[in-house]
Fold this sequence. Notes:
The complex is a heterodimer.
Chain A: H1 7-36, H2 43-57, H3 60-66, H4 72-80, H5 89-101, H6 109-127, H7 132-156, H8 161-191, H9 199-209, H10 213-219, H11 226-235, H12 243-257, H13 267-282, H14 290-314
Chain B: H1 26-34, H2 37-53, E1 57-62, E2 65-70, E3 73-80, H3 82-106, H4 111-114, H5 120-124, H6 131-134, E4 147-154, E5 160-166, H7 173-186, H8 202-211, E6 226-229, H9 238-248, E7 251-253, E8 258-261, E9 264-269, E10 272-275, E11 278-281, H10 304-309, E12 314-316, H11 333-341, E13 353-354, H12 358-366, E14 371-375, E15 384-386, H13 392-404, E16 409-413, E17 419-424, E18 427-441, E19 445-447, E20 452-456, E21 470-477, H14 480-485
Parallel strand pairs in B: 3-21, 6-7, 6-11, 11-12
Antiparallel strand pairs in B: 1-2, 4-5, 4-18, 8-9, 9-10, 13-16, 14-15, 14-16, 17-18, 18-19, 18-20, 20-21
Helix pairs in contact in B: 2-7, 3-11
Amino acid sequence: MVINMLSRVADSLYWMSRNIERAENNARVLSVQLIHMLEAQNQEAADRDWEEIVEVCASAKDYYNLYDRLDRETLIQYLTISPFNVNSLMNSMNYARENARSTRDILPEELWEVLNAFHLDQKDWQELPNTRQHTQDYLAQVIKTSMTSQGVIESSMSRGTPYTFIKVGKWLERAEKTARILNVTCEKNRKEADIPTDHYYYWLTALQFLNGYDAYIKEHPPTMESKHVLSFLIKERTFPRSIRYCMDHVLEAVDKLEGGKISHYSEDLFQMLELIQEEITSTNIEEMDMNELMSFLDHFQDRCMTLSRMFSQTYYLIEPVHAK
Amino acid sequence: MLTNYQTGVYFDEMMKQGGEPKKHYQWFYQLVNQFTERDLMKKHETAQLNFLRQGITFTVYNHTGGTERTMPFDFVPIIIPRQDWEEIEKGMKQRMTALNNFLEDIYHDQEIVEAGVIPRELIENNPYYYNKQVSGIDIPLRNHIFLAGVDLIRDEKGQYRVLEDNLRNPSGMSYVFQNRYVMRQVYPELFFQHSIETLEHQLSELHQAVTSHLPANANPHKSPTAVLLTPGIYNSAYYDHVFLAQQMGIELVEGRDMIVKDDVVYMKTIKGLKRVDIIYRRIDDDFLDPEAFRPDSALGVPGLLRAYRKGNVSILNGIGNGVADDKAMYVYVPDMIRFYLGEDPIIPNVETYFLSDPERLDYVLDHIHELVVKNVGASGGYDMLIGPQSDESEREAFKKKIIENPHQYIAQPTIKLSRAPAYQEGRFYPCHVDLRVFVMNGEKTNVLPGGLSRVALKEGSLVVNSSQGGGGKDTWILTESGDQHA
Lengths: 324, 486
């Protein structure tokens, strides 16, 4: 087991993993939206939907810095292969590959090959006409690449330090994305509380964005109550994209990394992890109204940022200057 | 397959003038004849794809930025009979000993200068001579050359000659292993009838050579920590660095991963600082330490030279080797062999003229169309003129450069580099080849059996460098039993 892993290497593994996870999540959101779009009742509703998609997958502020208005085709381009969007799928996958490339000496060869194969095929994608079918194929390829990568990691990496950094990156990214999607959904619900629209549809979408529809429906057939959905995506301890599941696993991983001991340098990190766990378990989601939920989710996202910073400080992952 | 193959006026590695294969290529020739054209095409494609998928690439930089490229692979191996190889091996060991003596000498007593064998100004004016930084230091094993990549060519008579001694950061060793790996994957049939030297133990030999360079102040009770220092993923030889670090099981580090405290080198890990004893560096001298060399270097580690001078860390290859492998000093290597070892060179040089000599200069200006002219400080096939393949304007431009700065250039007769068949785009044709031989020096000297055969795939081209369209071939040294077989 590699104990004294280089900080730079740990940092690269962590970001490789976050970027793969980010690309997969965003690809799924976009893929779901491309289908839902076909069912939108009117143009106005459709535009509102797209606005939310930008908020989930990137930043609306950054988008409007570049473009005057929300144009569907421009947006799809922006979220998939635009070099100007730091969170575009293409950029995330490129960052993941660069990070893998700089740590090739400790990664399974197949992991590198999976990411490299995506990169090699990407050139072809860029040359294809911008049709719906090609976009969907591209999204499917992103998701498949992420899943294959995870398969390689699970089936061939020793459960040592490098593995742990990869997993922590994945869970943190996932928990944040779940919170973000729920936040956007709650916001929409609150805004449209008085409009007689189909709220069922919002919660269904949130579940689909998070690949949780099938799992949810087995637990709660066949209802779609907002409090159940929220509780499921926040607190369900067995669903691998719920906030709780992710945070439990981060704590467990850090605990293992430290050999079950709390040292002076890792004390703050442990305290924060336990505090977050406590905040999640002690909250009664089903009794909260939309405003309370939104502030809970906002608070959790702030916690994630603090945690990410503390994690980096504890293991000296502070981004060093880039050499040219 | 090779029915229309013409050896021409060149020495051919595989074929005789009459269109028959040489003795040591007979088996290979017969086996290849059993492949159908479709087999050959398909195998060729599979092999190239193999390199791309694995990301065994180098980066070529031009005005639009960098592009990752694979080195084209050619499946026709260079086969070297046992006896020829033994001669090369001896020649390499002899040359390394002399060059290492030379480096030790000029950074200490300079006996070779005192004896009048090598002009003082040639050393002192050399930009890679780091007298101020490293003279007088006693380095581990007194060994300056941990790894050399010596480029050999064969002339029209088949005589091996040394073209360049690369004593700084020779790259390409990973390709030797990858070429063999791909070759075994894609052309397993070819190995059934041949008994060739294996490469299996070579990386552990390399690792032993690294760790034998224990710095004076290393903790004798702990096994030393060795690292490979890379400039990072944008370096053109990055794959080489990854491969060697991974195979030797040493950490691959960048300059920013290390720090010098109280003249001791540490690497930054997730659990704090860890002491480093040996650095196999793949960055150039002048980027190593901004305090001692180029102050603008972001690749190096401030204070590294102080740690080196104090004997707290070993740096491989030694600092200041560039003075021994530039194109001007090259001319004196046979003299070094005579001076330090009292022997005659086993593998000769290519004849070389200094242009600082006015008589020579006139001769070269008159005969430039039949000579090769090279900048003494350049490498990688840059800033050179191949007379017979140049046009009038190129020659005039070069003449101007030479007259302005005669010390900067040397000239050599255009050697009719040997050729070997290459199979590309569905046909066999003759291409010029050379051979980079890797020599590892630690407590003992070990020559990697074979090496990297480089091939100029552009028809008629003499430039084998990968940055200029060159490719690679597997190199087979026949074992004793293999020799009898052939």
